[in-house]
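ok so I'm stuck.
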Amino acid sequence: MALSAFDDPDVPPTPAVVRRCLGGAAPLWADLVAHVARCCPPLEELWNFAGAKFGWSLRLKRAERVLVYLTPQEGRFLVGLVLGEKAVAAASGKGLPPGVLALLDAAPRYAEGRGIRLTIAPGDDLENVKRLVALKSEVAPKGRGSAKDPVRPVGRTKPGKQEKRGPR
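replied:
not stuck anymore, here's the structure
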């Protein structure tokens, strides 16, 4: 069984089918998507099938950077975030509860950062998820410019040979 409620690779979920699947969690899903769109424009919503083990998930992207992964399940959904070390270090000053900070601290370290998943069900509060999204959008990934300029080239621009040599 896939992590997502939608596991048919040939049938991407439609908004109506997702709302029915989420049930009482559908307003929270819509609220989170709207929040990310407001705080991180321009936002692209991209459905992705990640294989039989994971199924379909919605990626919320700004430029080439995935900000949030949303995985629909029956009556709830998962929020996946990958935070770089700068964002993890800044998390303690953002008013997050000790449980979320412990989850971040315990998450395995990968080149992309630390990945966590939070389950959101009807009646849950999205404030901590919104804080994490804001934190991720504020902190630029390693080797990039400011988060406000997400399309800046990665790495240094090397001068051409003529610039290296100087005057003759």
